[in-house]
Amino acid sequence: MTERVAVIVGGASGIGWATAQALATDGCRVVVADRDRDAATERASALGAPHSAAWVDVSDEPSVERLFDDVGALDIAVNCAGFSTLGLITEMPAEDFRAVIDVCLVGAFIVTKHAGRHLRAGGSLVQISSLNGRQAAAGMSAYCAAKAGLSMLTQVAALEMGPRGIRVNAVAPGFVHTPLTEPAAAVPGVVDDYIDNTALGRAGTPEDIANAVAYLCDSRSSWLTGEVLDINGGAHLLRYPDLLGHVTRLMDQAP
Ligand code: NAP
């Protein structure tokens, strides 16, 4: 993978940061792009030259357009931006639902659009979808809907960009220990419930996901497109943890 240019959106933390490191190790020139400008700068300097940092917010289309215009021709784009909320549909303000869709689905569309204009033939675009794109979780309607939509967006983009020699795939992680999942992991029972509902008996690491992304970005996967790869220790074979139930029990116990 020498001399290939890779942009990692949401690259300053968790899965994105592990992916940035994996692709740098594979010989790519990495642009760590994130809405946390300081963290992106810190990460890029930890990687050293020729890697660089950029600011981007996927919910702000001009910033995404500027990012990819500035980078110019590229070989790899990975979109890791995302977050979730927790709440019952009957109690959720529509703006909370919209906020998640805006980043996880519309943001992914915007990254696909502008990365897609600059990806060279032979290039690869990878989205980070989720186990929740196929497995429902009470309290996570916006996130589940956004990630299910992202899985289908990936397939449509693969169809549209295939004739230009560009592959588009997604990785759908199960529960991975990152800053995003720290609050959920701190709720008693959540991680154990996840582990009890996997075949391999453990939660994931950012590196588990980064390894799969790196595979989707290099020539070993050159005939693979439009795929959503489940990386979850076999959690899709069983049921999603009762996150809302564990949180409700914790709140009921609070003084
Ligand atoms: P993370 O540690 O929070 O990393 C995500 C990074 O993306 C953060 O630096 C975050 O910045 C940035 N970001 C968030 N919104 C953004 C936006 N609008 N524009 C640009 N950057 C933005 O989370 P992670 O666990 O690595 O998650 C990465 C992706 O994997 C997400 O799409 C998530 O839905 C997906 N995923 C994660 C898991 C899991 O168990 N961890 C499971 C399935 C899927 P801030 O810190 O400022 O928010």
From TrEMBL:
<comment type="similarity">
    <text>Belongs to the short-chain dehydrogenases/reductases (SDR) family.</text>
</comment>
<dbReference type="GO" id="GO:0016616">
    <property type="term" value="F:oxidoreductase activity, acting on the CH-OH group of donors, NAD or NADP as acceptor"/>
</dbReference>
<feature type="domain" description="Ketoreductase">
    <location>
        <begin position="4"/>
        <end position="174"/>
    </location>
</feature>
<dbReference type="InterPro" id="IPR057326">
    <property type="entry name" value="KR_dom"/>
</dbReference>
<dbReference type="GO" id="GO:0030497">
    <property type="term" value="P:fatty acid elongation"/>
</dbReference>
<dbReference type="InterPro" id="IPR002347">
    <property type="entry name" value="SDR_fam"/>
</dbReference>
<dbReference type="Pfam" id="PF13561">
    <property type="entry name" value="adh_short_C2"/>
</dbReference>
<keyword id="KW-0560">Oxidoreductase</keyword>
<dbReference type="InterPro" id="IPR020904">
    <property type="entry name" value="Sc_DH/Rdtase_CS"/>
</dbReference>
<protein>
    <submittedName>
        <fullName>Short-chain dehydrogenase</fullName>
    </submittedName>
</protein>
<dbReference type="InterPro" id="IPR036291">
    <property type="entry name" value="NAD(P)-bd_dom_sf"/>
</dbReference>
